[in-house]
Design a protein that fits this description.
The chain is an alpha+beta fold. It is 19% helix and 37% strand. It has six helices and 23 strands. The protein binds zinc ion (ZN).
């Protein structure tokens, strides 16, 4: 029987010489400081073929973009001579560039990959650290970093996170046909319940095609610092060099002055904790608020403090914290306002504040449907666990 089979193979091989060729498939890893040519040379590919292959590849791929640890798949045939038949590398999470030998030359083309989207739902509570417990619940590392960023508008990670705080996360993985993850998709839903706050964030694409996160009520989470902590005020002195209005010498004004009538309300420019509410040297009656991510704001020369404002109290963005005055070293009713980042006074006008965007009525209707779908998907996925 075996002899018959062997005979068949010999006959077939004579008819179809390809049968004798031994094809080999291999995954190569670009070494540090290495390039494609050296990589292929190490596989004993003749230099003529290497130059033809790289020329074909460069039609669709910038060879300078080849990076250490990049995976490159090759198919070679070793009989009668070494021939690189195919080379494939990933150009994007959903696209490969393929170089193929067509019998007389190399040609290259991009190939879209078929990806499956698989929802990943995770839930847990903080026991050791935000990062560790999220990772233990199955959240990918890059997604945890993304969560830090999107939560940072509402959560001060240095102070607000306590043992037992609860989190929920939902995102999609893009899975290749071979079962490996091509890419982790953006966070679709993230929730964090702490002693101080209950944050629920839903990813949503607006009519102008912008993807951003909104609270259950459809409010944008991007709220850094208000540009103007006093309504109807005019800037009477900007940040920078100026002649001191009291002593006449040239000095550097490390804040913004807002002139407004006595007792005009002053608003917290961001949510945070009152670090100081009291007399502070030249600033007179002064408030310092501590916000997340190293930001503090200072409000000077106030006539009076807002209701309930004292050290340690948490305030919401836009809450009235005090009233315009002229206490301390001041020439008239105004607010002296400073923004301090990591203990350095910065120009308040330079603080990047993404435009707060309210959803339109039509968007709001879409948002509410999407929120319900996301909630349902999350519950269903958790039931399956
Ligand atoms: Zn000032």
């Amino acid at each position: 029987m075996r002899r018959v089979l062997a005979k068949c193979i010999i006959i077939l091989s004579l008819l179809f010489p390809v049968f004798l060729l031994s094809a080999e498939e291999k995954e190569l890893t670009v070494p540090k400081g290495g390039n494609l040519s050296t990589l292929l040379r190490n596989e004993d590919i003749p230099s003529q073929q290497i130059s033809e292959v790289t020329r074909a590849l460069s039609d669709h791929y910038n060879l300078r973009h080849i990076y250490p640890n990049q995976k490159i798949l090759i198919k070679t045939e070793n009989e009668p001579d070494v021939r690189l038949m195919e080379l494939r590398l990933s150009a994007d999470f959903d696209e490969d560039i393929v170089v193929k030998y067509n019998g007389y030359a190399y040609e290259s083309y991009p190939e879209k990959l078929t990806l499956r989207m698989v929802p990943i739902a995770a839930e847990g509570s903080i026991e050791s650290s935000f990062y560790n417990d999220m990772a233990a619940a199955g959240v990918a590392g890059s997604k945890i970093m993304e969560l830090f960023r999107i939560f940072s508008f509402d959560i001060d990670f240095q102070r607000d996170i306590r043992k037992g705080d609860k989190f929920k996360v939902l995102y999609y993985d893009f899975i290749k046909e071979d079962g490996t993850v091509a890419k982790h998709g953006p966070i679709v839903f993230a929730a964090l319940k702490t002693n101080f706050t209950d944050v629920n964030l839903y990813g949503f694409v607006t009519d102008s095609n912008e993807y951003d996160y909104y609270s259950s009520e459809g409010k944008s989470v991007r709220k850094t610092l208000l540009k103007t902590p006093v309504a109807n005020a005019r800037i009477s002195s900007t940040y920078g060099k100026r002649t001191n209005p009291i002593y006449g010498y040239e000095s550097f004004h490390k804040g913004l002055d807002f002139a407004a009538p006595l007792n005009t309300p002053i608003l917290a420019s961001g949510s945070g904790t009152v670090e100081l509410a009291g007399w502070f040297d030249i600033y007179g009656n002064c408030i310092i608020l501590r916000h997340s991510n190293g930001y503090k704001t200072l409000y000077g020369h106030m006539n009076a403090y807002g209701k309930g404002i004292k050290k340690g109290v948490r305030v919401k963005q836009g809450q009235v914290i005090g009233y315009i005055g002229t206490t301390g070293m001041s020439t008239g009713p105004h607010l002296h306002y400073e923004v301090i980042l990591n203990n350095v006074k910065i120009n308040p006008a330079s603080v990047k504040s993404p435009p707060e965007r309210n959803l339109t009525k039509a968007e709001m209707e879409r948002f509410e449907k999407r929120r319900a779908q996301i909630d349902e998907l999350f519950e269903n996925l958790k039931k399956k666990d």
